Amino acid sequence: MNAHDWCASALHEERIAQALWDLADPTPTRVRTILNDLGYVDERIHDLRQSGATTRFLLDLRDKGGRLCLEGSAAGENTVVDKCVAPATGPFTPGERKQ
Known about the structure:
single chain; alpha+beta
C-alpha cells in the first residue's frame, strides 16, 4: 500500500464508520444507501451481506495504481471499518488487511 492509500484509508474509515454507527437496523439495503449517499457507487461496493444483526461489505477504493480497499461490518455501535489491500489492476479481490 502506498503512502497515498495509507493516508486516505484513515479518512474513508472514519467517515464511513461515523455514518453507520447510528444505524439501528443495518440491513444490506440500508448500508448500501448510506454508502451511496457518501458518494460510493454500486460498482465499488462488494460482498454486501447480512449475518445476524451485522451487515458486512467490501469497498474497492483503488485509484491510479493504488491498492486500497476497505472491509466493514455495520453493527450499530459495534461498527468496524478497516483497510485491506487489493491488486493494483484486474478484478477486485481483497487481500490481507494491513495494520
